Amino acid sequence: MKNNNSVIIGWVIGVAAVAGLAWYATTNYVAPATNTTIPNTTVTSNTQVKQSGLPKVVTSFNVSPTDTTVVVTGTVVPNGVFTSYWYEYGATPNLGYKTTSQSIGSGYAAIPAPIYITGLAKNTVYYFYLVAENQYGKVSGVQYSFRTTNLGNLPFSGGIPTIKTLGANNISRTGANLTGEVSANMAVTQYWFEYGETPNLGNITAFASVAENESRMNVSIALLDLDPMKNYYFRLNAQNKFGTVNGTTLNFKTVGPLTATAPTAMTNNASNIGKSTATLRGAVNPNSAESSYWFEYGTDSLLGSLLVKTTDRVAVGSGMNEVSAKTDISNLKSNTTYYFRIVTRNDLGTTRGANLSFKTKAN
Prior knowledge:
The chain is mainly β. It is built from 2 helices and 31 strands. The chain has helices spanning 5-18, 21-27; strands at 29-30, 56-59, 64-65, 70-72, 74-77, 83-90, 97-98, 102-105, 111-112, 115-117, 125-134, 137-140, 144-147, 162-169, 176-183, 189-196, 203-204, 208-210, 217-223, 231-240, 243-246, 250-253, 264-271, 278-285, 291-298, 309-310, 314-317, 323-329, 337-346, 349-352, 356-359. The strands form 7 sheets. Strands 1, 6, 7, 8, 11, 12 and 13 form a 7-stranded antiparallel sheet that branches. Strands 16, 17, 18, 20, 21 and 22 form a 6-stranded antiparallel sheet that branches. Strands 25, 26, 27, 29, 30 and 31 form a 6-stranded antiparallel sheet that branches. Strand 16 and strand 17 form a beta hairpin.
């Protein structure tokens, strides 16, 4: 089960760029607050801890203010259990205000944690830090500060995304396709799925983007390397600069068998028999491993001589159901008995069907 931390970290940088960080950094940045007792918990982007515990947080000093609003962000590693985040802020280092708490899931990767704060005073220094909490406790990031502008009211347009977890399809022994619906609400939006073997989830997919003008966009992502015959729970999540939202948790069950086996094969009667042509027919079951089939045919009743011919191989996938098989052959001798059988193979073995025969028509 894999995630994509580089994509996530790149998105954090992108939020700041979209919001106008470049001009802010040269005109409004105020040094980090000093004499603070707020602990600093850092996250290494390529570190994954597979033991659940306290969340890890990083407050980002990259902020994007207007005269009365600001977008603040950071990252949170939930560390295996459902985790919420919020920001505490105020016009003094003692803070005094907090944003609405938002859920960021239960994965082991660093996930962006944006929030849009309104109702600020113009040309004023504000202090803030990111806070995350799960069942193991609460952790706060380093405290930073910023100054609102005095350039007139320039609020960001748009709002928090709206989403819906739709379901899973194309379910196989070791994979499934998760689907959902995302409305960006006029702000560049990222979405991802959480999934796991319990309702606590614990794994996340790579982040993907939705354009700001997208309304009710259908989204999907394929899961691989799942275990067969096992229940999985999942939900869709999305976020933009206004915050994070979570879809309803649904579930599906991968199919069996637990272990793939050699394919099975059955030779069926030939059809469309002419003077020099015929259609060879049969059926195969891949038995959950990538399989292919072909036919062997010739005038030797045992199909054991060097003169036996083979048709081209045809791939039939890795399903668990019987698949019909047929191949047209030509250049046969008229009024001649031919023997044939179907052959199928996967990495676990090769199986031959029973020998059958047909006779071409006379001239």
